[in-house]
Amino acid sequence: MLNAKRIFLLGATGSIGENTLKVIRNYPEDFELVGVSADQNTEKLASICKEFGVKTAAITNLKSFNEIKGQSVFPAETKLLGGHSGLEELILSEKADMAVVAISGACALAPTLSAIGQGMDIALANKEALVLGGSFILEAAQENNIQLLPIDSEHNAIFQCLQGYRKEDLKSIILTASGGACREVPLKDLKKFTPNEATQHPNWKMGKKITVDSSTMANKGLELIEAKWLFDLSIDQLKVVIHPQSIVHSFVEWVDGSILAQLSPPSMTFPIQHCLHYPNKKPAIQPSLDFKKSLNLEFYPPDLDRYPCLALAYEALKMSPYGGAIYNAANEVAVERFLNGSIAFTDIPRLIENALLNITTDNQFSLETLISLDQETRTKTNEYNIG
């Protein structure tokens, strides 16, 4: 495909991966999928390789890789790699113009840095990589002269609203939040909120972990920390508003009092298409808003009694450069413990708060220190007895 943009899709079988494939499928002349990865959904990954003629694929879960290795599930022309080392090898195996990073969790940091080192533009759908190692990603992006394009609908909205304006004229950014699955639940009932209830998002179809994060608004906390790095903002420039309809994806407020917003239906195809085609525009692959119909939009401030994880994110921001790493690692473990039934929904912020209060480091700021702190936080959060 002459002049097609060559794409790596890391995390091809998740919801972001599915929506990215929808865009690529609709614009086959614009994109060539040259490498894909998944954690353990091997059958779905094999189907993607067959459909798009993918040359190299990585399965990061070694158990799943060993189970599938030697079988004729994948096309003969697809080279299959295993483990996180296989993911690194995947990035080095093909020349590509862009890596779509849709892997969840802090494990996305290393492959993101590797892809930047190979000169690929990054379409980033992973919050944790920037939360953990934002300064290192931005430094690497600048050194390699690559574009860092945010796929998260909120950050993508901000990115679009900032175009053509001076940063010194920016007053604040306001991230919108749906409020998640527990938005209407009485506070007294949150302790009994079940994993099944917490993973039923009213607007978005997402994975279990991020849907729980939406219910606690830890996702918005992570997005605040991510926005700080992406747009070089101070804490007092970072704001959040509840917007149940998920139509306005964020606001940008300027010093002259004007406020810009980006609107689109709650589908990830819109920000993904923006990133893949950037700086160009192509017709949307699904209908946008129809102003021939009534459109009611609500906005109100978040209740921090309902969403203590949001308040803890501001505390983590004050602990920069390490607070984000602690917040993220503690939250990942807390959500895992909630989903496996070992803690209550309301214990998630308690675990995060305990980590922020008790885990510190005197080591010099470095990527190695952050990774060590991440592991220490996970270990101690796993061991912490709620009582």
Question: In terms of topology, how is this protein built?
Answer:
Blueprint (H helix, E strand, L loop, with lengths): L4 E6 L4 H12 L4 E8 L3 H11 L3 E4 L2 H7 L10 E4 H11 L4 E4 L7 H9 L3 E4 L2 H17 L4 E3 L2 H10 L7 E8 L17 H4 L9 H9 L1 H14 L6 E5 L5 E7 L4 E5 L5 H9 L30 H11 L4 H17 L7 H12 L8 H17 L4
Helix pairs in contact: 1-11, 4-5, 5-6, 6-10, 6-13, 10-12, 12-13, 12-14, 13-14, 13-15
Which features does this protein show?
Rossmann fold; 3 domains; 387 residues; globular; Rna Polymerase Sigma Factor, Chain: A; alpha/beta
The top-level CATH class of the largest domain is Alpha Beta
Poorly predicted residue ranges: none
Helix content: 40-55%
What name is given to the CATH topology of the largest domain? Rossmann fold
Q: Beta-sheet strand percentage?
A: 5-15%
Count of helical segments?
A: 15
Task: Characterize the overall form.
Answer: globular
Radius of gyration, taken over Cα atoms and rounded to an integer in Å:
20 Å
Ends apart, CA distance between termini = 60 Å
Domain tally? 3
CATH superfamily of the largest domain: NAD(P)-binding Rossmann-like Domain
Spatial order of the strands forming the largest sheet: 4-3-2-1-5-6-7
Please tell me the CATH architecture of the largest domain by its name: 3-Layer(aba) Sandwich
- Biggest sheet details: 7 strands, parallel
